[in-house]
Amino acid sequence: MAAKSKVKNENVSKINKSTLNKYFKSFKSRRYLILVIFLILVGIALYLGKSLFIAAIVGGRPITRLELVKELEKQSGKETLDNLVTKNLINQKAQKEGVTISNEDIQKEIENISKMVESQGSTLDAALSIQGQTRADLEENIRVQKTVEKMLQDEVKISDADLLKYFEDNKSLYGNEAKFEDLKEDIRGQLKQEKLSAAFQEWMTKLKSESKIIYFVNF
């Protein structure tokens, strides 16, 4: 009886070991399969998103996006950051004062620019491409420009007396045959830009001094 019990226990033990071995082998196989699938997915992700990490490969050596960003920061980091700070301050001030620019005004300005470029034998898209910009960039710049003009409009009022004085003071530039009425609007636009530029510099300097700006990078 004892011998039969011993044989039975040994058989049970062998079955358990066999079952466990099969389980562990199956587990290892599944784990290996999961690892392979994971590596394949990572490889696909890296390939499809390689431009997120690598900017170029030269002679087998990759140039990383980080290297590119560092070089760009060296060349124009301060200027670019200042522009971003300026745009943010303008947008925040405009939002606070309820100043908005309609999409119709922006499209009208784009049409004017497009006509001017076409009159010079080019196209708007070609001109933007040369400058490394898109239509979205142009729209943003126009919105910012018109927002500034709207907020500073009281600072850039120009009278006819101002226009006439400028014409008389600079008559030699236009020639003896030049007529004031023919040049009046051109002079107005020029004086407006000069006054706007001066008013903007003063306004932005004051706005920066009154705003809480924390810089985390130095150039």
Automatic annotation (TrEMBL):
Catalytic activity: [protein]-peptidylproline (omega=180) = [protein]-peptidylproline (omega=0)
Domain of life: Bacteria
Residues passing through the membrane, by range: 32-58
Keywords assigned by UniProt, alphabetized: Isomerase, Membrane, Rotamase, Signal, Transmembrane, Transmembrane helix
Molecular-function GO term, any one: peptidyl-prolyl cis-trans isomerase activity
SUPFAM superfamilies xref list: Triger factor/SurA peptide-binding domain-like
InterPro entries in UniProt: PrsA_foldase, Trigger_fact/SurA_dom_sf
Key word Transmembrane present: yes
Gene3D superfamilies reported in the protein's UniProt record: Porin chaperone SurA, peptide-binding domain (1.10.4030.10)
Statement: the UniProt record of this protein carries the keyword Flavoprotein: no
EC number: 5.2.1.8
UniProt name for this protein: peptidylprolyl isomerase
